[in-house]
Write a structure and sequence with these properties.
Number of helices: 5
Strand order of the largest sheet: 2-1-5-4-3
Shape: globular
Strand content: 15-25%
Helix content: 40-55%
Order of helices and strands: HEEHHEEEHH
Number of domains: 1
Largest sheet: 5 strands, antiparallel
Radius of gyration: 14 Å
CATH class: Alpha Beta
Distance between the termini: 14 Å
Number of strands: 5
Length: 143
Amino acid sequence: MDLTEIQTAVRTTLDAMNRVYDPKGIKKVFDEVLLVSFRGNALCLDWHQSARSEQEIRASFRQDFKLIRGEVMEGEYLPGDFHFDTEADGSIFDSFIYLGNERYLVFNSIKLSMNEVKNHGDWIAAQPYFVTLAAKLGIVFPE
């Protein structure tokens, strides 16, 4: 799967999630997605869909990454595995899907905390789309 196919899969999934989460189209589950990879200690921002600029994302990445950092650095993840952090708020990243080879799709809601996402829309109906995306990406990027 190349970058264009990943972008299409992510956009399609987010559109579907948002339609069931808030049929009125006012609130989104995630309004920011980043494709990141780590090469040693270096962060590579391979793609992002965000209201924030690449410069803003890079400037605050360490702070935004703080809650899921332990999971990423210490977790034993297989491609397609994912994690949510319910304490995330603002630009602090809410979730990731591990793609393999130190690559991650990172998801965030800048406007809502993860707890607000769970409480202000039909989060239960939106979840299967995320799980389906994770499973699809896990098959595409086996270790």
